[in-house]
Amino acid sequence: MKDQDLQSGMNYLVSVPRRVVTVYIPLCVFLFVLLFPFYWMAITAVKPNAELLSTTGNPFWVIRPTLEHFEKLLFHTAYPSWMWNTMIIAVISTFASLAASVLAAYAIERLRYHGSRQVGMAIFLAYLVPPSILFIPLATIVFQLGIFDTKWALILTYPTFLIPFSTWLLMGYFRTIPFELEECALIDGATRWQILIKIVLPLAVPGLISAGIFAFTLSWNEFIYALTFISSSEHKTVPVGVITELVEGDVYHWGALMAGALLGSLPVAVMYSFFVEYYVAGMTGAVKE
Amino acid sequence: MHAPAAALPTVSQSALSRLFDNRNFLGLLFMLPGAVLLVLFLTYPLGLGVWLGFTDAKVGRPGEWIGIENYEYLVTDSVFRLSVWNTFLYTVIASAIKFALGLWLALLLNERIPFKSFVRAIVLLPFIVPTVLSAIAFWWIYDAQFSIISWTLTRLGLIDTYIDFLGEPNMARGSVIAANIWRGVPFIAICLLAGLQTISPSLYEAAAIDGATGWQKFWHVTLPMLSPIIAVVMTFSVLFTFTDFQLIWVLTRGGPINATHLMATLSFQRAIPGGALGEGAAIATAMIPFLLAAILFSYFGLQRRRWQQGTKD
Asked: Closest Cα of chain B to A276: distance in Å?
């Protein structure tokens, strides 16, 4: 029933009430369920404690909105430094991974050195190795390197999932750039390095943005490494800080927790809203190739 | 700019051979930064993890080789066995529902609807927001005393007492699965939508001319054309669900009475707060065979897709 509108020319065959039942109602239910937690997060974050814990009244709405939870979060916890840590770590590991991935992807796709096919396959397999089986041995390595409980522990380990992903994505992207452009440059006496910097990279900007945005959100969202490798409060990232520091015993500060979740989601949400198309291209590109 | 014609053969000859040498050398050079990071922090830990599984390493103490003792113990450990069962239950149920809902949502988004691109953009929100942070929202939604779901259901007169979402074993399993589905459906829907858009409308026109009903078009055109991408997307989904950690850790920490412990959370629990690195590593290593099976599945999915597209490379 759902695919008959692919050709809009046959749209007139479907009556309006029927479309309401088969398309609009299910879609609205989906949207409601997918978006409700965000609404709930936002409304809880601005509710005063008295309203949060009252059993009367309508919980869906807030009578006296307050910013006290945000104030507590920003001025009475280490939240700003978690934000800062997460930002620094995400930005550095994203850029480092992008640089390494551009070189690797170019080498695999265009230099076609001996064994590049196999390396390309290995990169794809590396992409599928989940952090949950790596964190224990990585913890011992991080400890031996003496970077336990520092930003470096995360900056150096995040590329393990960023590089395979971005390399895979950029390989697909480089494949679409015509060989002839490079051949022209080679005839004109350009070196491989010049070709990469002056010809391939400018053409691959959309691919770079896709990979960058996706890598940034991946490192912003990372949890298990940050939970394992960081122990002191001032070095924590937002996801870890919120879950380990804002929960004190059995007393949950729901308002502050929600405010923390909301603020912590904001950077990725803003970034996403500016680059939706690139993000989607990155996500689907990695799966489709 | 141009080399004299007479010199051309020798120049190109030596340049070609130099280029050929360079190709491998340059390739190596270009691969170096990524390769160093990946070997040091991915390949080596992978091997180290398998090795740690055969030792009795504790936090702060390098382990001695103890053979398969860890695994022998784990096989008799009822908590581990429960976690394996939970992992399968969680993966199978969540993946099946995510696939069904994801495909449905993809088909809905492929319709002609107002504000199409805006709707698509906000659908993906649950996927881009950090899992831990959205899990906190679910934690609050599932709260035993103040759950909004319980509140609504009592006001509607459907239930008398508040539901203890995370306190009762099967209820807790259902609740974490629901939260996982919430996060996973947008990913699957958007990926399948990308696949749907590559299906040529002429196939549907041909089917319509042949008198196919909507259901037949879905069954005989959409699904077969989509199957390679479904294989890949679902492999990713299964892989990420199977190794899930964040959601469980935030919502239940494996409780109540280990009812929601997955292999990943149990491995963390034993290794980091518990200090038994060797045992934790053994649990993590035990996940690898399942992951390999999923990866092989994905590999053949990709092969089939290449074959379907008719490209050799």
From this structure: 6
